[in-house]
Amino acid sequence: MVKITLATINDVLIIQEIAYKTWPVTYGEILSVEQIDYMLKSWYETDVLLKNMADGQLFLLATEGDSCHGFAVYEHHYSKGNKTRIHKIYILPEGQGKGIGKLFLDYITKTAQEETTTCLNLNVNKFNKAVLFYKKMGFEIVDEFDTEIGNGYLMEDYMMEKKIAI
């Protein structure tokens, strides 16, 4: 049975391993190899992950026995507001389609309700198949934008939100 648990600084290596395994599969048809490498190096360096944890981002792991299937990252009261921001959900290819994404969302929703935030909020690449998953889970597209991230690269995202009952 898959368990969702809070990650600690001791789990940074497994988070990095999952990111480096999932990104080429998730974004291989959307982004260049060079952009994937640039983004992984920018966002998954040990110092960056530790700073995210220190700044209040909560990291979750989906584990089953000795195996870790994925991770999620979220933050309550994002930008001092009443939203819970989902920064990341990545599940290893062999773990996809098994309900792990829903388990992450259920866990985050429960903690968001405890924190009395009124909605879940996330950004997702417009061409990512996860858009369909989020729609199925009740999220709606509320905005669309492009963000320059350096080195001439662009993120083309939807912002999606889901209202939650407190």
UniProtKB/TrEMBL annotation:
Q: Which InterPro entries match?
A: Acyl_CoA_acyltransferase, GNAT_dom
Single GO term (MF): acyltransferase activity, transferring groups other than amino-acyl groups
Q: Cite a single Pfam family from the UniProt record.
A: Acetyltransf_10
Q: Domain N-acetyltransferase: where?
A: 2-160
**UniProt keyword list:** Transferase
Q: What is this protein called?
A: GNAT family N-acetyltransferase
What organism is listed for this UniProt entry? Flavobacterium restrictum
Q: Lineage in the entry?
A: Bacteria, Pseudomonadati, Bacteroidota, Flavobacteriia, Flavobacteriales
